[in-house]
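To the wet lab folks,

You asked to see what we're planning to order before we commit. Fair enough. Below is the target structure as tokens, and below that is the sequence we designed to fit it. If anything looks off to you, flag it before the synthesis order goes out.
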């Protein structure tokens, strides 16, 4: 399902989405809002590039961040839940990972976790991506939209 189909599915279902993005820094929300009519489905997005903002703005447990670091599946899940709750959306997408070129907290570039929270859904997908920063970020956006699209059917 491409981004246009995701937006149309949300509109058809009368549902909304919000994002909390780290490594993609708002690219998922930007992709969604590039579609005409997306204002009926997109509530907003949080760019939480800095680790402390993951807790302050998106509600990620500070103890979790201290214990695991920012790039962890539970962080992605909490980002998704935080986006959903704080933006009052039906669906939340949370993305965290390492775009590179250097590792972060011992996590290699290309490691990405995408969380999705929605009606009866709380899941996370792990990616191991190849390529430079741009390629990792673009593939992360596509994977996040695919994950949401799969659950919208």
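Sequence we intend to order:
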């Amino acid at each position: 399902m491409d981004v246009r189909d995701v937006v149309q599915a949300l509109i058809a279902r009368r549902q909304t989405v919000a994002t909390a993005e780290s490594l993609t820094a708002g690219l998922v929300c930007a992709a969604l809002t590039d579609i005409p009519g997306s204002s009926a489905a997109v509530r907003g997005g949080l760019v939480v590039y800095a680790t402390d903002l993951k807790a302050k703005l998106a509600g990620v447990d500070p103890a979790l961040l201290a214990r695991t670091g920012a790039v962890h599946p539970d962080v992605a899940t909490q980002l998704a839940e935080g986006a959903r709750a704080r933006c009052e959306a039906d669906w939340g997408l949370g993305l965290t990972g390492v775009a590179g070129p250097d590792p972060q907290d011992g996590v290699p570039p290309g490691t990405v976790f995408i969380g999705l929270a929605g009606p009866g859904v709380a899941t996370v997908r792990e990616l191991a991506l190849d390529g430079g920063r741009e390629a990792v970020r673009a593939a992360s956006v596509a994977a996040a939209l695919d994950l949401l699209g799969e659950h919208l059917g």
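Structural context that might help your review: The chain has one domain: 3-152. The mean pLDDT is 98.

Thanks,
Computational group
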